[in-house]
Amino acid sequence: MIPPEVVREGETTPRVLVVDDDRMTQMLLRRTLTQAGYEVESASDGKEALEKLAASPYDLVVLDFVMPGMDGYEVLGQIGGQV
Q1: 3-state class of 10 per DSSP?
Q2: Alpha carbon 20 to chain centroid distance?
Q3: What CA–CA distance (Å, rounded) separates 28 from 11?
Q4: Which of 28, 42, 74, 82 is deepest in the core (most CB within 10 A)?
């Protein structure tokens, strides 16, 4: 569970985006983080991750670096350019 000092009254639950092309890894991370009290969404590739990041803010991104197409390094570079 998220410690009470992390989420104060009136604040929202921390949001996490899990980016991984491996469905089993996505499921494991989603289940673990959800049980810990986080709001979790997932993306299967870099393009989808960037679309989700553009549409909504996240407190944390868990990013796989080895993915087909746009790899994690490219995603990180584009995220860094947006900050």
Answers
A1: coil
A2: 9
A3: 26
A4: 42
Strand order in the sheet with 60-63: 39-43, 15-19, 60-63
Q: How far is CA 17 from CA 9, 63, 65, 71, 78, in A?
A: 23, 8, 14, 16, 15
Q: Quote the CA–CA distance of 5 and 16 in Å, as a whole number.
A: 18
* Lookup: tokens for 18: 């899990």
Token readout for 15 is: 């949001």
pTM for the whole thing? 0.82
Alpha-carbon distances of 21 from 2, 50, 56, 61, 72, rounded to whole Å: 27, 14, 21, 14, 10
What is the per-residue pLDDT across 14-32, written as a single tens digit (0 to 9) for each? 999 999 999 999 999 999 9
Q: Work out whether strand 15-19 and strand 60-63 pair parallel, antiparallel, or are unpaired.
A: parallel
Q: Comparing C-alpha atoms, which of 17, 21, 23 is closest to residue 50?
A: 17
